[in-house]
Amino acid sequence: MSFLVLILLFACLGILLGYAAIRFKIEGDPLVDQIDAVLPQTQCGQCNFPGCRPYAQAIADGDADINQCPPGGEAGIAALADLLGVEAKPLNSENGVEKATLVAVIDEDVCIGCKLCIQACPVDAILGAPKHMHTVIEAECTGCDLCLPPCPVECITMEPRAKTLTLWQWEKPKTGQHKVAS
């Protein structure tokens, strides 16, 4: 009998929770979602926010400028300016400089399996077990450099990501090397 009472109680609580979830649902800000979709999702903190979503929220609230994301670079700033209908600005040098897309690479012969890099990675792109070699899931790595400082044996390097069709872009022309045909 007590078993049936518990089942009935849990069923009532489930129905109550389901109703509350529907009735008190909070919709997210669509502007924050759009801004967040433009950001590179590196979660590196170079913008002075703990991740891309808080930075997007700050931009939407007017508490942050659109030029604080070095991984997004000038293209990201232009996309944010276009989305928000404001004028694009140069990247704020206080937050860093735009770099090529990098990926972390662990020298497996040197790695001691300390797990400090795993704890520092904001996107869980590093796999490994205690006292065993670690490795990086290249497709998940955002190149944020946050795994470098905690590594006690300096076995992690940042290398340019291999160019694929999705990452390829035209090389910028070098200035001052125009030749006039005579």
Summary, kept brief:
The chain is mainly alpha-helical and about 180 residues long.
Structural description of this entry:
It is a single chain. With 182 residues, the protein is mainly alpha-helical. The chain folds into 2 domains: 30-95, Electron transport complex subunit B, putative Fe-S cluster (3-methyladenine DNA Glycosylase II, Chain A, domain 3), CATH 1.10.15; 100-161, Alpha-Beta Plaits, CATH 3.30.70. It has helices at 2-23, 30-38, 52-61, 73-84, 116-120, and strands at residues 102-106, 126-127, 135-136, 156-160. The model has no long low-confidence stretch (mean pLDDT 88).
Write the topology of this structure:
Blueprint: H1 2-23, H2 30-38, H3 52-61, H4 73-84, E1 102-106, H5 116-120, E2 126-127, E3 135-136, E4 156-160
Antiparallel strand pairs: 1-4, 2-3
Average pLDDT for all residues: 88
Widest β-sheet, arrangement of strands: 1-4
CATH topology of the largest domain: 3-methyladenine DNA Glycosylase II, Chain A, domain 3
Flag low-confidence runs: none
List the total number of helices.
5
Approximately how much helix is present in the residues?
25-40%
Oligomer state equals single chain
Largest sheet: 2 strands, antiparallel
What would CATH call the class of the largest domain?
A: Mainly Alpha
Second-tier CATH architecture of the largest domain: Orthogonal Bundle
